[in-house]
Amino acid sequence: MRFLNLKRPPLFFLVGIIILAIIVYFLILPLVNKIKTASQKYLSNQEALLKLEKRGMIITSLRKSYQEKETDLAKIKEVFLAPEKTVGFISNLENIAVRTENKFEIQTAEPLVKKEREEFPSLNFRISLEGSFNNLLKFIAHLENSPYPPYRLISLEDLTIKKLKAGEVQSNFNIKIYTR
Questions:
Q1: Secretion signal: which residues (predicted)?
Q2: pTM score, two decimals?
């Protein structure tokens, strides 16, 4: 029992410090390093999860926006006249002329071609109407307020009005109807 001799407390103290240093160096420091590494991995995983969650929210938002835009696009497509409905449109023009008591004549019709300076293809008609001025206005109002969706994108151009006899006028104008 020489070790525990009261005359040598510094040696006991020195051995205790050495054992404590070995325990700290071989046990506690590696555990602290593992804890640091694990916490860094945890933080990076949290960041990755936040990024994925944000992407998921963006994707959900984009899907919803896409569905809304798709619905709007379908409505926009209905505004343009389908080429196969051209005859129906001409028939509708004739019916409007009859309802508004105008004499109706298509003088020229340009084929369905997309011109270079225009974004959308169009069908162009040169129309002549004979009737009273009020009936001419009724015809134009009916044309612009037509309840059929494909007939809404219409442009009236080059309107000329000539007085014929008392209360009668002749009007000539171009109708441009935008097509798909």
A1: none
A2: 0.55
